[in-house]
Design brief:
With about 270 residues, the protein is an alpha/beta fold. Helix content is about 40%, strand content about 15%. The strands form two sheets. Strands 5-4-6-7 form a four-stranded parallel beta sheet. A three-stranded antiparallel beta sheet has the order 1-3-2. The protein starts with 14 loop residues before the first helix and ends in a 13-residue tail after the last helix.
Length: about 270
């Protein structure tokens, strides 16, 4: 008799398998893996009624795979985002539930020929270019070991926030010499990716030549968290942690493996 789980044993599928098994939920997960989206955008992309899309978004939110934030541009809107770290954990758990020998490894980076001879270029945009986009620029440059050329700008630049400098210094990155820049400074310049980090700047983001990949990450302005300067510091820590996670996953999309710690630029 072959070994098995025994008659009558019916273990439930792991949560990720249950969520991803539905074709519409899988489509929503795929879209949110690419960029943060509003409901009406997901309705258009999925080609399904809004009530159905909203129902399945509710299921994904209840599972913890998808999160939501009110738009800073229009408080009546909500941006949905995929929690990639939670998805990675859920996928690993699903593999282990099927067989203890299964292990999910990160996808290898694209070979250099697929990326071309030039480094990947990315422009990060937010409103003030005082915290979010500056931190993203520095993290992309550092975590790729210089294989990504990152830039940042804002629609209404203002001085670099001291908390942004401090929170990045704790990650071994020096922002002290950075200066805010207006997005017009990059007008007419081509990039592989343009990533908006602010709901407001997404609404005014200009077209860039060369058909770059446009992504949106709806990340709150940490300076708008309220309270004293000391009270807002945790919001900057949360901003840096979220950017670190998102950029780590984005490097695989860009075909650039994260550099070993010994090669990461400080």
């Amino acid at each position: 008799m072959f070994p098995g789980m025994g008659p009558g044993t019916r273990p439930a599928p792991p949560p990720f398998a249950r969520m991803a098994a539905d074709p519409l939920r899988w489509r929503l997960l795929r879209e949110l893996a690419h960029s943060d989206r509003r409901v009406r955008e997901l309705v258009t992309l999925a080609g399904q009624p809004q009530n159905l899309v909203s129902y399945h978004l509710g299921q994904l939110r209840a599972s913890g795979l998808v999160g939501a934030r009110r738009s800073s541009f229009d408080g009546r809107d909500t941006y949905y985002h995929l929690d990639l770290a939670r998805c990675a954990q859920a996928l690993a758990a699903a593999g282990a539930a099927l067989h203890p020998g299964l292990r999910l490894d990160p996808a290898p980076p694209a070979p250099p020929a697929a990326r071309g001879p030039d480094p990947c270029t990315v422009l990060f945009l937010c409103t003030g270019n005082s915290a979010r986009s500056q931190a993203a620029e520095a993290l992309a440059q550092a975590r790729s070991g210089g294989r990504v050329q990152a830039f940042s700008a804002g629609s209404h630049p203002k001085p670099l926030h001291p908390h942004a400098v401090q929170v990045m210094a704790e990650r071994g990155i020096d922002l002290a010499g950075q200066r805010p820049k207006h997005l017009s400074a990059f007008a007419g310049r081509g990039f592989n990716y343009v990533i908006t980090l602010c709901d407001r700047v997404r609404e005014v983001c200009p077209e860039f030549p060369g058909h770059p990949g446009y992504l949106h990450w709806s990340i709150p302005d940490p300076a708008a968290a309220g309270g004293s300067e000391e009270d807002t510091y945790p919001a900057f820590e949360q901003m840096a942690a979220e950017l670190e996670t998102r950029i780590g996953f984005w490097l695989s999309v860009a075909g650039v493996a994260p550099a070993p710690a010994s090669l990461q630029e400080a």
